[in-house]
Amino acid sequence: MSTTPTTDDAAETEPESTLATARKQLERAATNTDVDPAIVERLKHPTRVQQVSVPLERDDGTVEVFTGYRAQHDDVRGPYKGGLRYHPEVTAAECTGLSMWMTWKCAVMDLPFGGGKGGIAVDPKSLTDDERERLTRRFAEEIRDVVGPTKDVPAPDMGTDAQTMAWFMDAYSMQQGETIPGVVTGKPPVIGGSYGREAAPGRSTAIAAREAVDYYGRDLAETTVAVQGFGSVGANAARLLDDWGTTVVAVSDVNGAIYAPDGLDTHAVPTHEEEPEAVLSHEAPQTLSNDAVLELDVDVLIPAAVGNVITASNADAVAADVVVEGANGPTTFAADEILEGNGVAVIPDILANAGGVTVSYFEWLQDINRRTWSLERVNEELEEQMLSAWSDVRAVVDERDLPWRDAAYVVALSRIAEAKGARGLWP
Ligand code: NAD
């Protein structure tokens, strides 16, 4: 096994902003709580970052060696949990920052998990299916010692999917000598995946939007919504909100947006999965640029495409009353302050799109208990878990007059600190 142990240092030497942002957010969150500074200091550092070399025999017989990572931030509340991404820009520092976000996301949802994230620095589009399979199986072998249903449970992320998780689970199971579905989540249901997992982040985003509309005393039937990104998160959120009576006036993909002031039939607009990048093929009264979607005068704006789209340069132009973060990190640190100053409520990603990790938790429970839940049960339990997290965060918003992001961090950090306090520092 060609693993290079650890490493905080590996993470610290790389100039990567995700980690810096994650640490800045932790420091800011700490100022809103009375958490012991020693615990905050411990949370600035991951438990470990495993770096591995992953050799791949290409279809033409040549061998290429890729670098893989698994960052494990904190497991005081349970096994590490988080995605594996295949992307050329994956680094130790990025994985570490993202694993910190997973720690907060699991804690705000009160899931018995900590935060992890990993991946391989590779462009998955440059690989054939056979090559992706061989790469995934070898990666599973290289990080086998640090993952497992009670240690660290990966899931799909950018560039990986249910099939990747199936290969990973098979490779791990073959090496362990028994079938262990709970080593990863996001698998196909036939091998222990959960119904409703794929739609869950969009569903939770829609639930967060619905609750926010209610919190601000509005009626869903009189609410207008714009959604940037019509993929797994954006399309599921848009269609549910449409079904619940809102007027979805605009949706977009990477090529641009369609706009209908009286509302779109979101079920008729092709999602990224149904027909990639085909939103503009749907007839609508008007088309807009992608950036213009963010500036529409709507009640609810849902950025659900990529990170860092609301920045210091366009935050002032955001005309929505509520922004619900379907994507991870769509609002920059600086933009957050501008939105706050303008009275725009931002429902943070760690709460809004946490349906994904929540249903991953349900999948893990189903795998461990060898018992499948129906889609109805998954959706009911997700609704319950979301409402519970929503009400915990809302209580802090009301009691402390904090923005939603700060309140979500207060809930998460308090839970983690309490667990660390109870367990103590060993030895
Ligand atoms: P996806 O690939 O299914 O869809 C992405 C959509 O965004 C597509 O419609 C694409 O055309 C569009 N898009 C891409 N770049 C764009 C750009 N620059 N401007 C406008 N639109 C653009 O992706 P997804 O799974 O829906 O993920 C979207 C976001 O949600 C990401 O930030 C992801 O990290 C986050 N997220 C996803 C999950 C999940 O399980 N799918 C869970 C939590 C968070």
Which ions, cofactors or small ligands are bound in this entry? nicotinamide-adenine-dinucleotide
CATH class of the largest domain: Alpha Beta
The major pleated sheet works out as:
7 strands, mixed
β-sheet strand percentage:
15-25%
**Per the principal axes of the C-alpha atoms, what is the gross shape?**
globular
Radius of gyration: 21 Å
Helix/strand order: EHHHEEEHEHEHHEHEEEHEEHEHHHH
Strand order of the largest sheet: 10-9-8-7-11-12-13
Structural class based on helices, strands and sheet pairing? alpha/beta
State the total count of DSSP E strands. 13
Helix content: 40-55%
Number of domains: 2
CATH architecture group name of the largest domain: 3-Layer(aba) Sandwich
Give me the CATH fold name of the largest domain.
Rossmann fold
CATH superfamily of the largest domain: NAD(P)-binding Rossmann-like Domain
Work out the helix count. 14
Estimate the mean pLDDT confidence.
94
Weakly predicted, low-confidence segments? 1-16
Task: Offer a concise description of the structure.
With 427 residues, the protein is α/β, with parallel strands linked by helices. Helices cover 42% and strands 17% of the residues. A hairpin with a 5-residue loop joins strand 2 and strand 3 (63-74).
Keywords:
427 residues; alpha/beta; Rossmann fold; 2 domains; 6-stranded mixed beta sheet; 14 helices; 42% helix; 17% strand; disordered N terminus; binds nicotinamide-adenine-dinucleotide; Glutamate dehydrogenase; Glu/Leu/Phe/Val/Trp_DH_dimer; glutamate dehydrogenase (NAD+) activity; GluDhGdhB
